[in-house]
Amino acid sequence: MVAGWFAGDGDGFHLIGTRCSACASVFFPREDGFCRNPGCPGGDLDEVPLSRRGRIWSYTDSRYRPPSPYVTDPELSWEPYALIAVELESERIVVLGQTVPGVSTVDLAVGMEVEVVPGVLNEDEETTWTTWHWRPTGVTA
C-alpha cells in the first residue's frame, strides 16, 4: 500500500488527493509540498477524498511482464491486465489504474462509468500489498 493515496473499505473506499486553497486545483497523487499549477500564487494544500466514480477516458492492456520494481514471480505465467484512464466525476482530473481482475479491454468502452474499489497488488505469506482497481458500475465481481 502506498500510504496516503487511498483509504477506507467497501463503499467507503476512496482515493485521496489534495486541493489548493488558492486556486482550487486538485492533485492525485496527493501533493504536500506546493501547488503544481504554474499560474497559482500558492496556497495551503488540503487533503480531500476524491470522487468514487468517473468515466473511462482511455484504455489499453498490458501484455508484457513489467520490469522491477513491479513485483512478479518469473516462474509463473504472465496474465495480461487492462489499464484505464478515468476522468473523475467531480474533479475532472484523469487517474490511471488497473481494472478489477476478470475485466479486459473487450469489456470496456470510452465513456463507460466505472467506480474505484480496493484491490490487491501482490501478496505473500506475510504481507498483502493493496492498491485500487476500477470496476465498471453494475459489476459486482
Characterization of the model:
This protein has 141 residues and is mainly beta. 0% of the residues lie in helices and 43% in strands. It is built from no helices and 9 strands. The strands form 2 sheets. A 5-stranded mixed beta barrel has the order 5-6-7-9-8. Strands 1, 2, 3 and 4 form a 4-stranded antiparallel β-sheet that branches. It is globular. The protein starts with 5 loop residues before the first strand and ends in a 5-residue tail after the last strand. The model has no long low-confidence stretch (mean pLDDT 89).
Main sheet characteristics: 5 strands, mixed, barrel
Q: What form results from the Cα inertia axes?
A: globular
End-to-end gap: 22 Å
Order of strands in the sheet with the most strands?
Answer: 5-6-7-9-8
Radius of gyration: 16 Å
Q: What is the total tally of β strands? A: 9
Helix content: under 10%
How would you spell out the order of helices and strands?
A: EEEEEEEEE
Kindly estimate the percentage of residues that lie in beta strands according to DSSP. 35-45%
- Total helix count? 0
Average pLDDT over all residues? 89
Low-confidence stretches: none
Quickly give the structural class: mainly beta
A few lines on this structure:
0% of the residues lie in helices and 43% in strands.
Descriptive tags:
141 residues, mainly beta, five-stranded mixed β-barrel, 0% helix, globular
